[in-house]
């Protein structure tokens, strides 16, 4: 959860530090070194924010592979729990699923996924999943 907040917290802390630093400078035009320090801190905070945001938005290559090469199956929702995490007003939930592949035996797995607030699955609902045939515990809800 803190992974998503970290860029904002770092940017806020660095910018607040720069503002406090500049408020300590006497009134009048700030001397050149103070202005350069202020601009440097602001630029570093923006760079840290950009790099963290870029890292967070990068797609997981293993999840991409499962989405492309995974085996399609139907899964019945056995239980649903709120994890307390929300992204873009969509809650992340922990689903306990009974996966029924077309070929092979069925199995039970627990998976975390984001769901829409207007279509939260309920126990008994059937959803589509893709799973790794080599490790069925690794799946994604599609």
Description:
Helix content is 40%, strand content 36%. It is α+β, with helices and mostly antiparallel strands. The protein folds into two domains: 2-57; 62-141, no CATH class. Strands 3-2-1-4-5 form a five-stranded antiparallel sheet. It is elongated.
Index terms:
single chain, 142 residues, alpha+beta, 3 helices
What's the gist of this structure?
This protein has 142 residues and is an alpha+beta fold. It contains 3 helices and 5 strands; from the N terminus they run H-H-H-E-E-E-E-E.
Radius of gyration in whole Å, from Cα? 23 Å
Quaternary class: single chain
**Extended strand count:** 5
Structural class: alpha+beta
Helix content: 40-55%
Mean pLDDT: 82
**Order of H and E elements:** HHHEEEEE
Tally of structural domains = 2
Distance between the termini: 23 Å
Looking across the biggest beta sheet, what order are the strands in? 3-2-1-4-5
Strand % is 35-45%
Low-confidence stretches: none
Q: Given the C-alpha coordinates, what overall shape results?
A: elongated
Question: Major sheet, described briefly?
Answer: 5 strands, antiparallel
Secondary structure tally, helices: 3
């Amino acid at each position: 959860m803190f992974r998503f907040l970290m860029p904002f917290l770092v940017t806020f802390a660095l910018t607040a530090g720069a503002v406090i630093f500049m408020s300590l400078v006497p009134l009048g035009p700030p001397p050149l070194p103070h202005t350069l320090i202020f601009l440097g801190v602001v630029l570093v905070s923006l760079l840290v924010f950009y790099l963290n945001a870029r890292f967070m938005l990068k797609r997981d290559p293993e999840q991409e592979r499962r989405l492309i090469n995974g085996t399609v199956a139907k899964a019945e929702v056995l239980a649903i729990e709120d994890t307390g995490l929300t992204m873009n007003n969509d809650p992340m939930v922990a689903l306990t699923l009974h996966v029924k592949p077309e070929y092979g035996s069925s199995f039970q797995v627990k998976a975390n996924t984001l769901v829409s607030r207007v279509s939260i699955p309920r126990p008994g609902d059937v959803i589509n999943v893709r799973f790794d045939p080599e490790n069925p515990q690794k799946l994604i809800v599609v």
